[in-house]
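Predict structure. Chain length: 320.
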Amino acid sequence: MSPQQQVRGNDRVTTNIARTFSEFRTAVSESFVPLHVTSERPDPFWGRIRSASADEVHVSEVSASEHVVERTPELIARADRHYFKLSLMLSGTGILIQDNREALLQPGDLAVYDTHRPYSLVFDDDFRTMVVMFPKHLIDLPPDVVSQLTAVRMNGRQGVGGIIVPFLAQLVGNLDQLSGPTGARLAHSALDLVTTMFANELDVTRGPVDPHHQLMQRIRAYIDANLASTDLGPGQIAAAHFISTRHLHGLFREQGTTVSSWIRSRRLERCRRDLLNPLYGDRPVAAIAARWGFVDAAHFSRVFKAAYAESPSELRSAGR
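Prediction complete.
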């Protein structure tokens, strides 16, 4: 156990209080992914990390003195999980550097970064920030699309950001709400809003209308709207958008995936949400699978366990 003081408000909310730089360095890597942390003023130093998790969504509030955080290639090479992290500056300023881009973040600004590629965070003075860390598969945008937004400042004081930031700020101020039966729904609501913000930002940064991008947006929306249909497949999707199946497969290949893999991952994620939803606590696993297009319960259990490293029943039991 690390030397910093740990205070648990309930079984899922933890506060790590570090009164030395060494304690804070340990707390940072334990709270997120392994990171290299340095400071030009390590003494005196103070830091605090409040955190809670729900269904693989990890929400933290970090307050600390001046320091620099680096995710190095050596640390990445030892990682077996790929996450996105979203930062919302609450007070102070910070600089995020990734993919040859640099974003100056002030209170109300947001930025996303990828733990599977090198990045740096620079804080020159005392600050407070919210960090949402989540597996890449939990949002319905391909990772290579989101990668266009890494280290890009997103304004949370107007437009779509002005709607989303108040929700995130309320969430980090009420971390205890992530525990209990509504936690997973709150976490996924946050990710749905974040996905909306990403999609909006991509539209803004693209400038003139990109027909290729618009087509992929329509296709992904069509797939999500028809996940329950057992007939959903490349032929139906291509016909609905007046393109050839060859063109459709090419579009998904450019995204680093396949049509069938995308459909399966979206169906699995909907099943995962239902399994964690207390409203469906009495519904059989097979019924939930069938609701999202899985007609073979045994096949569903196999692909679910392959994707999430636990069976549907194990996930449901752990979430109770």
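Summary: The radius of gyration is 21 Å.
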